[in-house]
Design brief:
The chain has 266 residues and is an alpha/beta fold. It has a single domain, classed as Alpha/Beta hydrolase fold, catalytic domain (Rossmann fold, 3-Layer(aba) Sandwich). 40% of the residues lie in helices and 18% in strands. The chain has an 8-stranded mixed β-sheet, with helices on both faces. Helix 5 (148-159) links the parallel strand 7 (141-146) and strand 8. The radius of gyration is 19 Å and the shape is globular. The relative contact order is 0.11.
Length: 266
């Protein structure tokens, strides 16, 4: 009996050790190959190599609109790379918005290794490029993040003064989403990552749109509601349908119309 207990305890604590040591591999799932570009949508774009404040070169795409109503900076999720978010380019280009999207360090053609601090610096480099190189006023910049990118977007909005912030399928914090995924482990004690949307939105000064689906099987719908409740006014909530990685397509009409209304209102 005691030998069984010893084995079970050994396995349990062994898993805890692995979770602590390899957290970054449980959060970031980058791919290097770029399989498509905005050119596949027949859109012209600038393929950029930007240098971050800590000297890392990251890849970004800038897709200009013919008669721009503003500029959207998009922060993608934790898997793949920027080429898997061409739906964002398509949607906002049709609304006559410039689109700036980028790969975090370690993703796609971006150099370096991914880290929380690094992802924040990567997003800031894109924001600074728009303001300093393209001379785009902050009041014309919309920051948007999907899934993990939501936390990077909310941090960017907290540290700057964009016109709008849009969070899609975002979680409240890394510790919270990990606790949902691994309820039998004390992940809150082990977690070395923050990505605290729930705290960031309390500090932003621009209108916020939260988008979430009750069908989301990865980030519970309750996370979206908690983020919304924590934020200051003005704020709006857009409920869509579909799983975490398909909701924006499955609910495309509602999704796009919701974006349009929010961006026209503010």
């Amino acid at each position: 009996m005691w030998s069984i207990i010893t084995i079970v305890c050994g396995v349990y604590f062994g898993i805890l050790l692995l979770m602590f040591l390899f957290q970054s591999k449980m959060i970031y799932f980058p791919t290097r190959e770029i399989v498509c570009t905005p050119a596949d949508l027949k859109l012209e774009f600038e393929d950029l190599a930007l240098t971050t404040s800590d000297g890392v070169k990251i890849n970004a795409w800038y897709v200009p609109a013919k008669t721009p109503r503003g500029t959207v900076i998009f922060c993608h999720g934790n898997g793949g790379n920027l080429c898997y978010s061409l739906d964002v380019v398509e949607n906002f280009s049709r609304m006559n918005y410039n689109v700036m999207m980028f790969d975090y360090r370690g993703y796609g053609k971006s150099e370096g290794s991914t880290s929380e601090k690094g992802t924040y610096a990567d997003a800031q480099a894109c924001y600074d490029w728009l303001v300093k190189e393209k001379k785009i006023p902050e009041k014309e910049i919309v920051v948007m993040g999907r899934s993990l990118g939501g936390a990077i977007a909310s941090n960017l909005a907290k540290d700057n003064s964009p016109r709008l912030l849009i969070l899609e399928s975002a979680f409240t914090s890394t510790a919270d989403i990990a606790a949902n995924a691994y309820p039998i482990f004390p992940v809150r004690l082990l977690c070395r990552f923050g990505y605290r949307n729930i705290e960031n939105v309390k500090l932003i000064k621009c209108p916020l749109l939260v988008i979430h689906s009750p069908d989301d099987e990865i980030v519970p719908y309750s996370h979206g509601r908690k983020i919304f409740d924590a934020a200051n006014d003005p704020k709006e909530f857009l409920q869509i349908r579909g799983f975490h990685n398909e909701g924006f397509e499955e609910s495309k009409d509602v999704y796009v119309e919701g974006l349009k209304k929010f961006m026209e209102k503010y």
